[in-house]
Design a protein that fits this description.
With 402 residues, the protein is an all-alpha fold. Helices cover 78% and strands 0% of the residues. It folds into 2 domains: 26-196, no CATH class; 205-397. Helix 1 (30-55) packs antiparallel against helix 2, helix 2 runs antiparallel to helix 3 (92-118) and helix 7 runs parallel beside helix 9 (274-305).
Length: 402
């Protein structure tokens, strides 16, 4: 016998209301985990598209397509996560609406290769539209059931709908101009700011921090998968070699270090307002995109090492050094500075970023980048240990005196 609840016994319809932002032990649900798992398919396709574009010496168009597609992935995931943090009631209607959004995500994933190869975003647009239908339906449902947040929910619903009309005009026009994409991206980013000014939604700081952490792990996992796939193809075609082993070890050290650095500081402690939440939440676009790009860059370096990518060696090195440096910069701004870190740690990050970029000019860039970032992490841990010991000694003496 077990005391665990039967998840199939959930009622079809339950009272719809706001969640308590101070609810204890709030954690991600199994449906949210399924949502993330399906999103990793889209992230994998985006990373693969970036990898092949750089390896074929089309870095400029590949990066532009990657940033465009990844914005749609990240933005759809983020809209769902913040809405769920405030209003998830987990009844049958809610679950079906989320599953509709998951379906849209898979359609986006199916359209990503077409976006990279042909610069056509029609399939990805259809998937995005399906996701937004599910999102708008839930906003309207919450507006009807929660009078205190009615204005904000209606603003979310109308803003998202108007943004989709803008995307539709761009699709009908044919060629997507870069300025038009940036304009619509700014419109999308402005919708939550406008909606939350009416009535802040009751999102849960610990739940939001956990959701972002889980998605970071998923994107790191995709990077591991992309690098592993490239190494497997290389070994099958050329066998092991000392440079390849060095690249494998260096790549693993980089990915492990990125995980360690991101989770070194708990984020929920300073997520105390919408103003902080917007900066922190929006800034994660660069963390997620950089993490996915690291996996693509490692795959590019495998191709270059095996002679399958006829590109400049500096481009191959930059495909890893630039996203790693961007990751460090964003984590420093979003996770370290809000904790009011000591002066030594604050200056350590810029030195590490400069070291990573400089390591890209070394003869063996990936192992060199790994040495820089592992050294940085070791110094950070040493400083943390010294700080802990200084704080522990007075506490121990106080206990002895009692």
């Amino acid at each position: 016998m077990t005391d665990e609840p039967d998840i199939t016994a959930k009622p079809w319809r339950r009272p719809v209301g706001a969640r308590d932002p101070h609810e204890p032990h709030r954690a991600a649900t199994s449906l949210e985990l399924l949502f993330d798992l399906c999103f990793v398919v889209a992230v994998a396709y985006a990373g693969a598209g970036l990898h092949h574009a750089i390896a074929e010496n089309h870095a400029a168009t590949g990066i532009a397509s990657f940033l465009t597609v990844f914005f749609a992935i990240w933005w759809a995931w983020m809209n769902f996560s913040w809405q769920a943090s405030a209003f998830d009631n987990d009844d049958g209607v809610y679950r079906l609406a989320v599953m509709l959004q998951i379906t849209g995500c898979l359609i986006i994933a199916a359209g990503i290769p077409r976006a990279f190869e042909l610069r056509q975003f029609d399939v990805a647009f259809v998937g995005y539209l399906v996701m937004r239908v599910g999102l708008v339906f839930l906003w309207l449902r919450f507006a009807r059931a929660r009078p205190a947040c009615r204005t904000a929910c209606l603003r979310f619903a109308s803003g998202v709908s108007l943004a989709m009309c803008g995307w539709s005009v761009m699709l009908i026009a044919g060629e997507w101009p870069l300025w038009g994409w940036w304009l619509m991206a700014l419109v999308e980013l402005a919708v939550p700011v406008w909606a939350e000014r009416a009535t802040p939604t009751p999102w849960h700081p610990h739940h939001i921090a956990e959701r972002y952490g889980l998605f970071t792990i998923i994107v790191l996992g995709e990077s591991v998968l992309a690098a592993t796939h490239a190494v497997r193809e290389g070994v099958e075609g050329h066998g092991f070699s000392a440079p390849l082993v060095g690249l494998i070890v260096g790549g693993l050290a980089i990915l492990f270090s990125l995980w360690w650095i991101y989770f070194a500081k708990p984020a929920h402690r300073f997520l105390t307002s919408n103003r902080v939440g917007f900066v922190w939440g929006y800034g994660h676009y660069f963390i997620f995109a950089a993490t996915a790009a690291v996996g693509a860059g490692l795959a590019v370096n495998v191709d270059y090492l095996l002679g399958e990518a006829a590109i400049d060696p500096r481009l191959a090195a930059a495909s890893v050094s630039v996203p790693v440096a961007l990751f460090l910069l964003t984590v420093w701004l979003l996770h370290v500075r809000p904790h009011h870190a000591r002066l030594g740690l604050s200056f350590l990050f810029p030195f590490a970023i400069a070291g990573v970029l400089a390591a890209g000019y070394c003869p063996w860039p990936v192992p060199s980048i790994a040495v820089v970032i592992v050294t940085f992490l070791g110094i950070e841990l040493w400083l943390a240990d010294r700080r802990y010991r200084r704080q522990a000694v007075p506490a121990t003496r106080a206990l002895q005196e009692i």
